[in-house]
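F.,

This is the one I mentioned.
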């Protein structure tokens, strides 16, 4: 695999705006997270555990595609194992399914954190390449998609996007025009994160 605040009690749930709901067999997803398209409130039978669930995962799966998948099986790691694909070759080793890709991971982030995010945390769907963000040597919590209006409340996140555009050689005028065109439900879209340790706001962007 490529390897380059408030914490939730169970691993795999701490990077998502949800927490393990006591007395229930599913993750409780707040309205803002439930609208991502990655989690849908609906009764279903999970293809991995075979249990009746109330929240269905509809985000990316980099592995065998299930008919239906619950957040419980993602968090526990059961889905990553059950949906693994054969690596081929003489060793015939299996490759664990992932729910987000490891892109531009800082060197100070442990491999265990990368595996927790890619294999045991619900992913989110972007226009082209989803990128989970990291800070303080750890994965950041995903807050959801955002447009310019939402990002105005997070100046640190806007600064991250401006710095990103400077690296690409964008002019200040072009950068500001692009940022003001960000749309939470359209494109281009920003994706908002928050550091679990220092609460710094972060953002990435994507366009179709």
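My design for it:
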């Amino acid at each position: 695999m490529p390897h380059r605040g408030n914490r939730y009690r169970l691993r795999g749930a701490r990077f998502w705006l949800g927490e393990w709901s006591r007395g229930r067999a599913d993750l409780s997803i707040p309205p803002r997270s439930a609208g991502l398209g990655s989690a849908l409130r609906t009764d279903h039978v999970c293809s991995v555990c075979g249990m009746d669930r109330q929240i269905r995962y509809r985000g990316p799966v980099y592995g065998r595609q299930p008919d239906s998948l619950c957040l419980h099986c993602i968090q526990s790691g059961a889905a990553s194992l059950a949906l693994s694909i054969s690596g081929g070759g003489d060793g015939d080793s299996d490759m664990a399914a992932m729910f987000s890709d490891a892109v531009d991971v800082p060197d100070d982030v442990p491999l265990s954190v990368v595996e927790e995010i890619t294999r045991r945390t619900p992913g989110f769907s972007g226009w082209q390449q989803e990128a989970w963000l990291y800070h303080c040597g750890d994965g950041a919590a995903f807050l959801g998609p955002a447009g310019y209006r939402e990002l105005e409340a997070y100046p640190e996140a806007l600064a991250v996007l401006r710095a990103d555009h400077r690296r690409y050689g964008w002019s200040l005028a072009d950068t500001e025009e692009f940022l003001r065109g960000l749309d939470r439900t359209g494109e281009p879209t920003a994706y908002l994160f928050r550091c679990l340790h220092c609460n710094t706001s972060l953002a990435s962007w994507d366009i179709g």
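The helical segments are 31-34, 71-76, 78-82, 111-120, 148-151, 155-167, 172-180.

Talk soon.
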